[in-house]
Amino acid sequence: MTDVTTTAPKPVSPSMQAWRMFRQNHAAVLGLGILIAIIVISLLGPYIYTVPPRDMVWMPLTPPGTSEYVLGTDYLGRDLLAGLINGGRVTLAVGFAAALITVAIGISVGALAGFFGGRVDNFLMRVTEFFQVLPNLLFAMVVVMLFGPDLLNISIAIGIVSWTSTARLTRGEFMRIREMDFVKAERSIGAGNTRLIWRVILPNAAPPLIVVSALAIGTAILFEAGLSFLGLSDPNSTSWGRMIGDNRPYILDSPWGVTFPGLCIFLTVLAISLIGDGLNDAFNPKLRER
Amino acid sequence: MRLTQARSLTRFVSAAVVATVAVASTAQAQGTMTSYTSGFRSLNPAVQSGAATGAPGSQIFAGLVSVGEDYAIEPYLAESWEVSEDNLTVTFDLVDGATFHDGEPITSEDVKFSFETVAANHPFGQAMFGKISSIETPDDDTVVVHLSEPTPSLMVSLQPMLMPVIPQHIYGDGQEVKSHPRNMENVIGSGPFKVSENNPAERLVLVKNEDFFIEGKPKLDRIVYPLVKDPLTRMLMLEKGEVEYAGFAGIRPTDWPRLERADGVNVTTDGYDAIGYVHYLELNLREKPFSDLKVRQALAHAIDTDFLAKVIFGGKTAAGTGPLHTGNPFYTAEVAMYEPDMELAAKLLDEAGYPVGDDGTRFSFVLDVPSWAPQAHVPMAEYTQAQLAKLDIDVELRRAPDFGTWVKRIAAWDYDATMNGSFNYPDPTIGVHRHFDCDNIKNVIWSNTQGYCNPEMDKLLDAASVETDPEARKALYADIQKLAQDDLALIYMPQDFSVTVYRDNVKGLPASPFGGLAPMVDVYIEE
Question: In chain B, what are the domains?
Fold first, then answer.
């Protein structure tokens, strides 16, 4: 990426070029569209569709399309549509927060291990392996049970169990890049370790990390849904996952209670995957000449 | 899938075994009855209350009497009994030749030992047998119980779930009976069925006691209780006919119509009168704002228990109107009813000094939701949260991860409010007094943990526990229910949706108000 500006016939900023590549992947653009739509609906929806999500508004377990509440109601007679619109915020918030924690831990550990190598690397990789061999879901369940099921703890639990692959990827990138000439040049003019890690190597390792970070959001949303399905959800804020968990006992007679939140999760995660795929294309130098 | 196959294979094999036995012996109808359990920590009902222990416990152990239709007291291990004129002495004559499962004879000494063990260890031991001043055993077949005061609840407490006759030669070895290893391993009982396999993580298997003291009984060969906790799995098993009989089935009201459509499956709410499972919102009365009666009245006006019963629970349960279950013989509906009225509730809160503050709320509190009856408590708690939000009261729900965490909080009085529920048991002295008696404000779960104390209530409770005239007693309980509702010591929710699900071919089910917790001596599977 560093030599892009020198070889390109006319100067185009790297981000512009990435966006161009991204745009060529139609599926990714569709994914981006879906995700933006979901974010907009989650943020603005509650002000437009004002049915209170917690209030009992109609007979419990009303099928979709048989009342003014188009998606039907759950076991307490709460409007499913209102639940979905309001639940989107919680789901996305947990997804982004957990992904942030995943990335923060993963990049820090990976960067330190990859940059310093030797004993530091050895130690940090053993720690990473320790976290890798723990069964993810079980470990997250234990964390949530110990500290109580609120949104912050759930995000932390998801973050703690899913940072290992990010760390390994970061480490690999750092090991590769730290031996490159421009890094050696920076070092020879007296750049300190902090500068080398954060200003020199990290920006150059960024492309694959951006891809995994995007995918981490999707994984976190699925994880949250899994925890909620098992009953480990914040009882004071309704996420899509929790809607599935809560309505699960009624699935035999009123499948709509789990179908709609399930669809929402599916769409969101699909959109994020498509975007991740597009980002991968955008940052892949081999595709650039196409 | 594989599990189902394995299960049906075992069922096939066991059916084949049963068939062989049927051909070999001359006994009449029999069979294997499959039920399920939600798990138990003990099989000894003398030291552990609750349905999970009581259901198999009543089969493993015999009581002095059993309770039949309309609370009729019927002879069981006691052939006959005599009550003295002054109601202070009861003399029991035991069945001759009855033995424990290990062949040791059941003697009056064992009965005396059982009384003492229950009185000392059972959560209601003192409520049931605290008035027993002494027990004499003039000979092996005679037990004389002396009481310090008349105890109208005595006889109904003597069935196996609350007063099992346990072997002194096993539990009397000096170890703590509550934590005795034989409560779970190699359990030796006195009842119609013996434990043949007890694997708490998988299943419990009971087999017929061939030497049972009633000739020709029990009729069943085996009762199998696999461990099934998930309500949805239970539903599917019931629907597919994999379970012959499930007392305290733990299904949801919305599942009822589905089960009724299934072939050969019956659902009944009969047989829970003597259990009397009620649910309530428990408020910590030591703390503001709940120490204020007006606040409690406001809450009672905001929570529409009738609506909850009719709509959320599909009309399959009755609204709670007080401490007694509608199936209790002493129940009365003549109590203060708090009509749903949000305006009045808001007014009461204003009067009590809780106006809407600058932050838009009157006050906030944490509502604990226990883990042991989610099908009832989760909808109730979520409904309460939504209703109180309309009054600008901020309710934070806190779902307990497990039973122990919740018990610790409530028993330590370290809570604002909790959803809760308890059993009335056959006599209010056992299951109801505990929540209202000033002396019972204890750090024990399901005691008077909310900290309610009214001397007038204590006087009524004391009078009712010794009143032997049924009519006078009924009048006392009417006053108790009225006072409980006036004081709003607890805010009652809809009663539990307690049901038994059984297949068409299960015959001879006990007509007892104890339902599935009664001994199943006459039950058989029709071929």
Answer: 7-16+28-210+500-525 (3.40.190.10), 277-495 (3.10.105.10)
For residue A226, being part of any structural domain is answered with yes
Considering only CB atoms, B396 lies closest to which of A61, A236, A253, namely A236
> Would you say residue A13 lies in a domain?
no
- Asked if the structure places residue A14 within a domain, the reply is no
Contact status of B364 with chain A (Cβ, < 8 Å): no
Q: Does B419 touch chain A (CB under 8 A)?
A: no
Least confident of A232-246, B278-292, B500-514: A232-246
Identify which of A270-279, B59-68, B372-381 has the greatest average pLDDT: B59-68
Chain A positions touching B255 (Cβ under 8 A) are 252-253
CB contact B369 to A (< 8 Å):
yes
Return left, alpha or beta for A283; rule: phi > 0 is left, psi -120 to 50 is alpha, else beta: alpha
- Cβ <8 Å between A77 and B231: no
- What does the pLDDT look like over B241-268, one tens digit per residue? 899 999 888 888 888 888 888 889 999 8
Q: Which residues of A touch B (CB under 8 A)?
A: 52, 54-56, 59-61, 75-77, 145, 148-149, 231-232, 235-236, 246, 248-254
CA-to-CA distance for A99 and A117, rounded, in angstroms? 26
pLDDT above 90 for B3: no
Among A57, A154, A230, A236, the strongest candidate for a mutation testing the B interface, having the largest count of B CBs within 10 A, is A236
pLDDT in tens, B331-354: 999 899 999 999 999 999 999 999
In whole angstroms, give the CA distance from residue A20 to residue A14: 10
Percentages helix, strand, coil for chain B, rounded to the nearest 5? 35, 20, 45
* Of A204, A210, A58, A224, residue with least CA distance to A152: A224
List pLDDT tens digits, range B222-231: 999 999 888 8
Contact B195/B209 with Cβ under 8 angstroms?
no
Is residue A10, in this structure, part of any structural domain at all? no
Q: CATH number of the domain that A259 lies in?
A: 1.10.3720.10
| Helical axes A80-116 vs A118-133, angle rounded to 10° | 150
pLDDT per position as a tens digit, B422-475: 998 888 988 899 999 998 888 888 889 999 999 999 999 999 988 888 899 999
What is the secondary structure of A172-193 as a DSSP string?
HHHHHHHTSHHHHHHHHTT--H
Chain A residue with minimum CA distance to B231: A249
Cβ distance B254 to A253 less than 8 Å, yes or no, reads yes
Give the number of A-B residue pairs with CB atoms closer than 8 Å. Answer: 61
Q: Report the gap between the CA of A165 and the closest CA in chain B (Å).
A: 30
Do residues B396 and B366 touch, judged by C-beta distance below 8 A?
A: yes
- Give residue B5's pLDDT: 44
> Containing domain of residue A145, as a range?
25-53+63-289
Q: Which residues of B fall within a CB distance of 8 Å from A252?
A: 232, 235, 255, 258
pLDDT at B513 over 80: yes
Bond before B379 cis per omega within 30 degrees: no
What is the distance in angstroms between the Cα of B379 and the nearest Cα belonging to chain A? 7
pTM over 0.90: no
Contact B312 A231 (CB under 8 A): no
Give A148's contacts in chain B (Cβ within 8 Å).
398, 401
